[in-house]
């Protein structure tokens, strides 16, 4: 089979790999949709060479690794020792793209990325991911995809949309609240879509007019472009009767946006950081302590949370497929990442079939 590999310095290559065979406790997933996530860009942009994953803090790997950490498809082979109610041939499934030890308190509650022994594999980074026809993985990393949802929606939930869901759950957002969402890439736009459907009032911020326009389509009540607004905090306070937002979510990773995400909430408000990497500088007393502000870090989701997100979306008929502005064949992967690297368009997905 062909698989897409990040070779470094914004280069992607299609390479030949053997079709996988499941071992004990494993399955083979035939990929029907493999999402392109914003965090893929750090692998896409990273320098080439054998130490590239180690340089990204993921340890070293042997040989090329197939990219893509938002896999969704159908189980086509099941290895020995897999329980009949855990995975079966023909099962429609998303994949939770981390592998832990499987038995520690974190893994046993579905938080394999927080394994007490350290994450063993990150699919699409240190282990083969979904930008190929097939993916081999432990059966315990699968989450059943409801029949009402498309494979593309399942791919989005497998990271970007699931991450937004996890953050909104951590914030405890309710329909009578206002939330400011900094960054309208795939995660931020998913948060806008979900928060709006929860009944919350959404203030969407981004420097891209195209992404702000999509945020409006997804239910944002107020759009702010920080490059065109002299006083972002003032604009948010004016829209919230001088009090500030009840909650905020930063999906941008930008230091200024992170600081404003904390500063824009009202007393007793909550701010959540989702975007990976980078730093932020805060004046602790006025920004946090003396306003009783809660600052939350939210990292993806558990397998339980992934299943809950999928069921919520299915039961409410939320159109997550609308996130996707581009659909690509596997042989178009180079063009797909070149476009996504601009970070002005919506979400893309690879369709290997």
Automatic annotation (TrEMBL):
Highest rank taxon of the organism: Bacteria
Transport in keyword set: no
Enoyl reductase (ER) domain residues: 8-350
Alphabetized InterPro entries for the sequence: ADH-like_C, ADH-like_N, ADH_Zn_CS, ER, GroES-like_sf, NAD(P)-bd_dom_sf, Zn_alcohol_dh
KW Disulfide bond (keyword) present: no
One family name in Pfam for this protein: ADH_N
Keywords: Metal-binding, Oxidoreductase, Zinc
Cofactor: Zn(2+)
Family: Belongs to the zinc-containing alcohol dehydrogenase family.
PANTHER family: ALCOHOL DEHYDROGENASE-RELATED, L-THREONINE 3-DEHYDROGENASE
Protein name: Zinc-binding dehydrogenase
């Amino acid at each position: 089979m062909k698989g897409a590999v990040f070779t470094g310095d914004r280069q992607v290559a299609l390479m030949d790999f053997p079709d996988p065979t499941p071992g004990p406790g494993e399955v083979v997933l035939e990929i029907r949709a493999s999402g392109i996530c914003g965090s893929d860009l750090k692998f896409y942009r990273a320098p080439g060479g054998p130490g590239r994953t180690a340089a990204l803090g993921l340890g070293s790997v042997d040989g090329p690794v197939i990219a893509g950490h938002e896999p969704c498809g159908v189980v086509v082979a099941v290895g020995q020792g897999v329980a009949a109610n855990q995975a079966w041939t023909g099962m429609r499934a998303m994949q939770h793209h981390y592998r832990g030890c499987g038995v520690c308190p974190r893994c046993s509650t579905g938080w394999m990325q927080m394994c007490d022994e350290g994450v063993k594999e990150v699919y699409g980074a240190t282990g083969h991911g979904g930008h190929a026809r097939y993916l081999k993985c432990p059966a315990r990393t699968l989450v059943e995809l409801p029949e009402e949802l498309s494979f593309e929606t399942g791919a989005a939930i497998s990271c970007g949309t699931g991450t937004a869901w996890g953050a909104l759950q951590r914030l405890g957002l309710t329909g009578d609240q206002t939330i400011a969402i900094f960054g309208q890439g795939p995660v931020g736009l998913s948060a806008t879509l979900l928060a709006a459907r929860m009944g919350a009032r959404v203030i969407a911020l981004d420097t891209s007019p195209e992404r702000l326009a999509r945020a409006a389509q997804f239910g944002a009540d107020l759009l702010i472009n920080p490059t065109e607004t002299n006083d972002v905090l003032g604009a948010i306070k004016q829209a919230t009767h001088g009090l500030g937002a009840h909650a905020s979510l930063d999906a941008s990773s930008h230091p200024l946006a992170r600081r404003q995400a904390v500063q824009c909430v009202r007393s007793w408000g909550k701010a959540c950081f989702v975007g990976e990497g980078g730093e932020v500088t805060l004046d602790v007393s006025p920004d946090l302590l003396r306003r009783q502000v809660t600052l939350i870090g939210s990292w993806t989701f558990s397998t339980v949370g992934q299943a809950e997100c999928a069921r919520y979306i299915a039961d409410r008929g939320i159109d997550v497929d609308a996130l996707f502005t581009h659909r690509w064949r596997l042989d178009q992967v180079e063009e797909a990442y070149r476009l996504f690297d601009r970070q002005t368009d919506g979400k893309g997905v690879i369709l290997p079939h």
